[in-house]
Amino acid sequence: MNVKGPIRSGLFYLNKMAIHRFQALQQVDSRKPQLVTAPSSKVSDFFGSQVFSWKVMREYLPSEAYATLRTSVDKGTQIDRGTAEQVASAMKAWALQLGATHYTHWFQPLTGSTAEKHDAFFEPLADGFSMEAFGGDKLVQQEPDASSFPNGGIRNTFEARGYTAWDPSSPAFVIGKTLCIPTVFVAYTGESLDHKAPLLRSVHFLDKAATTVVQEYFDRNVSRVICTLGCEQEYFLVDRALYNARPDLALTGRTLFGHSSAKNQQLDDHYFGSINDRVTAYMRDFETEALKLGIPVKTRHNEVGPGQFECAPVFEEVSLAVDHNQLLMDIMEKVALRHDFRVLFHEKPFAGINGSGKHNNWALATDTGKNLLSPGKTPKKNIQFLTFFITTIRAVYEHADLLRASIAGSGNDHRLGANEAPPAIMSVFIGSFLTQILEDIEQWVKQGEKMSPDEKTELKLNVIKIPEILLDNTDRNRTSPFAFTGNKFEFRAVGSSANCSSAMMVLNTIVADQLVKFHSEVQKLVAKDMKKDEAIFQVLRKYIIESKQIRFEGNGYGEEWITEAEKRGLSNIKTTPQALDKILSDKSRKLFKDNEILSERELEARYEIDLERYTKKIQIESRVMGDLAVNHVLPTAVTYQNVLIENVTGLKQVLSDAEFNKLAAEQLTVIREISERMTSIRKLVSEMVEVRKTANLCESVREQAGDYCDKVLPFFEKIRREVDKLELIVADELWPLPKYRELLFNR
Questions:
Q1: Which of 12, 51, 184, 353 qualifies as a cystine partner to 294, CB 3.0-4.6 A?
Q2: How far apart are CA 95 and CA 88, in angstroms?
Q3: CB 463 within 8 A of CB 440
Q4: Nearest to residue 447, comparing CAs of 520, 516, 539?
């Protein structure tokens, strides 16, 4: 239907937005599940078929080059030029066989998404000849032009030079007809301009610190400790037509207006329910694409919110897991279009409905296949478990504010502490069984005193009681931001749209730093003729006592916890600007600088970039809100009000004064309420615009972010309240925006 002006439907002249809404609903009614055919009924037949994996490399590379590359990746050493040339030649041959015509260095700039610039393998030669070329120089390093990427003052806009450098620990892959090579992104000065480089530094630091502890006290056969990660990705699906009829969803990723549906999630009937056929087809489609790219997606289910779902992969090495999560999100967005869906990764797309997170399941494993966060059968294995378990808790206690900063963002501010998301107060949940173990250690081990043989035997006998599989129901406290769940820690506060690199980089760094301190403290006691196992227990007891305040087993949603947390000295940082300030604390600066994770300049750049992103997102939301309120909602309200006025005028002509006063009272009340709410909306929007103009004049990025947070953002709820009340008043046939019941229940 081509509409050039308002058309009449019943008593009303429908505006274009209302027409768009009803056309969208008609399109939804006609949707059918797409037919999805996997390459094979067995996933193992096509898993990783588009990945330049170690298996493929063994086939395409000379044995010497393969061995050299494998050693370099395992040990983190530099790859020589000759090996790089051989890898490039093999990679090109493999990619061409899959139909690739271009290649790109695939990287993760500080925009929150991925980036790529495609170059053709094709190279023209003299006399009209040509060939496909791709050498070691193009594999190892590229110059993509860095002029428009966030840099936080590291470089000037006119200084465009930035470099991408090959990350051989993450395998190349082919999407469509493009060979994608995972890389880091650095400035001409060598300073990081991406998420991946600091993460890799933290991985190396944690490997070194953890391996030292394991070799020194528990197992000399271990030569490497690997940080693993499994990301549970939550998301919403909305029909494409309805999404296009909601400018706020299209421009901000969330609904800025919308009265709650009579039915939402209060019956809990969507959680783990039967998956809609059309949604199942979408899931099968994106899972197939992901599996071909080596992303080990394994779990799918309905989440709590209507229209909300989750997918989860098998654990992988942390840097690869982060790459795969970024790639998965991109795949999900592209595949959604094939099924006439739009996928929403915003942390809080719908008010009053559960938000979406990206639960980061983090663990440590040795190259001998042992999980350091899993108990064993012997006292020695359980002391090893307790060492890494307690040290991690101590690290979280020491750097709780920095951990909070690592998951800060405008979207997550809406989510934390609301509808089953963990609160903004960082705490650790370990369950009653392990709580008792820590209390026993605190009681049995006497500070600075050597243990008698009987005491040592008793302690080891109690330590061995820790079961290999912890049966305590440790994974049910949904209110904890950082929970131990049997053989891993689950960092539940990470937002669904986030790049996990920031949170994992911080977690790796603080745990590694604490392990270094642990080793130093134990060695000092050993130097005083204390036995190693006694020294370990002395330090662990100290950590248990010092970090006791961060442990919380109760309801994180309750007001009592807010009061209790304040008594314990724990921070409750509710806004992104306040959280980001913790990045530049003296303690954080020292942590990153001393351990060579981020220089002061890199740290300050990230702080500035994150503040700018926060400000711009609130600014965009404010502009969209003003436009929708003034140019769509108010005209709709006027249209409906005019219909009521026409009705009242007609009643006045046919009724007596007494009858009119009685029968038209309701219409007159509604007419007055519409006028009052329209006046309020226009006034609030005007005031918000003026406050925004003042905020835009701030010279400091921190001051500007603070103004947007403290002065602009409070207008959102006030304006929304008035608009949502009008949604209940105005005739459904006129309302321009798809309503919550339509967005959440039409699939």
A1: 51
A2: 10
A3: no
A4: 539
